[in-house]
Amino acid sequence: MAEVAQGQTESEITSSDSTITYPASYFIQFAPVSVSDMLDRIPGIGLVLDGATADLDRRFGGGDRGLGGSSQILIDGKRLAGKTNEARIQLSRLAAEEVDYIEIVRGTSSELDVQNSGQLINIVLLRAISRNSYSAELGLRHFQDGTIEPEGTFSVTGQRGRFNYLMSADIAPGYRVEESQELSLHPDLRLNEVINLERQIEQTNYSLNSSLSWNFGESDRLALNLLYSQNDPPSKLFREITDFNGVSPATSYEHERTPANSENWEIGGDYERNFDSGAKYKLLFIANDKSAGAARERFDFLSLGDTENKNLFLDNNGSYKEKIVRTSYTWNTAASQGLELGIEGAQTTQDSALRLGLPLGGVTSEEFGGLTPVNLPNAISTVEEIRYEGFAVHNWRINSRMSLESSLVAEYSEIEQKGDVNNKRDFDFLKPKVDFIYDISNAFQFRFSLEKFVSQLSFGDFSRNTNQQDEDKDTIAGNPELEQRQSWRYTANFDYRLPNDGGVLNSRLFYYDFDGDIGRIDVSKSLTELESANGNVGDGKVLGLNLDASIRLGVLGLPQALLTGGVLFQKAEISDPLIAKKRRVVPYDRGNIRLGFRHDVSRWNLNYGFNYRDGIDGNRPFWDIDNVLFIGSPSNLMVFVEKAGWRGLTFRFEAINALDHVRKQERRRFNGYLRDELLSEIERFYVTDGIRYTFKVRATF
């Protein structure tokens, strides 16, 4: 039986074979400008677009290796061959008037262009001999120091016969201003220092993006995805340091400036050949290059207006390159079964160089900021990984209610490091995966997944790098022996869709068993010079429960109001030999809560709402060899109001961090090893970046 939105006719929204279809006509009442506007009106869409149920290991630097076979968003049933340039970033650029219908696919099939472990979105565009549309968004963002930065997007979408295109240009503010205070306390809580800090990052993000596709007859299709972006992020910092250890407080100052550059380009391609038998051949490729550099210079002086003395020069430059090719052949082995066989090959290279200069009184060098060069071990490095994998994916539609997708990936890789350290290692992994889906009813679905997961290494951890977590330690040692973190992952998901498109209730229970978790290890040369690096520390476990609800408020007489909420509980534990105690598995903290509301008032072409997120207290400590950093629960409230009106323009106002949340952290430093528990200092941080206000004007023409 079809599921129907409250207040809509049954012919508008349909459900069959675990797929819910929303035609473009359903969204007319909301006056959408982009595909993002359309998706915002679908209950439970946040579950599909990751939200809180996203795999934290993938989000925090341990993501999928290579292209893989999964994607959450399809356009015309096809994935975009991209990593940085992927389908999700296209949603706000694709004009709503180009859409024929949107599908929420809750099942799996060999006819899909990707593996589907949960749910995915398929955006189907209109077909015409010739069509063209333009969309534009212009806005201004106001920051707490009074700075106003522009933002905007211009895109063109269209079709010329068998040629389809989407091209866009973006400018977005990456500007950031922070005010913070640090209280340094002795172990007996006597005041040691007070540091007031102002940090300003003058960053603007520019990008050019295009997705092009050609259909050569009914059987052949070629697509290209192109991206270029630049976001030079220079920053400056000012510290006021008051020392309370003397007879009277003494104040000194520090100033930092960090010129920086960053750019990225990516080319992705996708060729597909369909045969009369129903079989399909696919070829995907990606080449990308990311480069970035920053030169941090620090100066100290005793009073404002005095001569500044340089006491630090830290230059960090690097580039990251990928070349990936993936090819496969898919065919139906039986009426209800399909098989995909393929191979993927990849070359990943990271170059890094780190230079440190200090006022040590020796021979100086302009390449080290006019200071004395410091010899850093493992500071110049090139890391290259050559990886091959063969894969097989089997889809089986067991009956009208049950389906099973199973896959097996055999991976071989070679990682070689050259430069100050020369090292070569070989790895091989077998990665099975099973996804079972059972439609208990048209509305109620159960999904179970079992997967062997191997995380992507951060090659920056192989060589000495800047320390992003502790400003008192300028660099962190590299580890040429670092290995991939592996895990077995078990997930059970219950998804219930309320009648008449009234909402979605979802629960997700998961258990991860980690092997070779990554944390800090001891690489000290002596007991008086303690030093740590990222390394494999042991086995850990994560147990979690995520509950989500997305409900229309028709029972309250507000059928166009959508209330969303969720809560995530996680328990993560690992025995860490460095600190001689159990700790949480990073980045799996205790969890968070989410709450959102949107109300469309169609008769006024108006919508408004908010999104709120907060962490559960006690989140995410970072343990090191001689200190621990406790990070407070992050919180953010975003409120918005949007009005469609004059000459077809849409006006939107947003307040980001509307509660002006103050981020709180505490670091405890120890004499010698942390495990000896000889506390030497307590640092308490209070940081705010203020409320940001944004005003935008959007249009399609």
Quickly describe the structure.
The chain has one domain (14-700): Maltoporin, Chain A (Beta Barrel), CATH 2.40.170.20. The chain has three helices and 39 strands. The strands form three sheets. It has a 22-stranded antiparallel beta barrel.
- Uncertain residue ranges: 1-11, 58-62
Tell me, what is the CATH class?
Mainly Beta
Q: How large is the radius of gyration? A: 27 Å
Helical coverage, percent range: under 10%
**Proportion of strand residues:** over 45%
Architecture, according to CATH? Answer: Beta Barrel
- What does the average pLDDT come to? 89
> What's the number of structural domains?
1
Q: What is the fold-level CATH name, i.e. the topology?
A: Maltoporin, Chain A
Task: State the total count of DSSP E strands.
Answer: 39
- The count of helical stretches stands at 3
In whole angstroms, how far apart are the ends?
Answer: 38 Å
Structural class assignment: mainly beta
The main sheet comes to: 22 strands, antiparallel, barrel
CATH superfamily placement: TonB-dependent receptor, beta-barrel domain
Write down the overall geometry: globular
Domain TonB-dependent receptor-like beta-barrel: 216-619
Domain TonB-dependent receptor plug: 19-110
Protein name: TonB-dependent receptor plug domain-containing protein
Family: Belongs to the TonB-dependent receptor family.
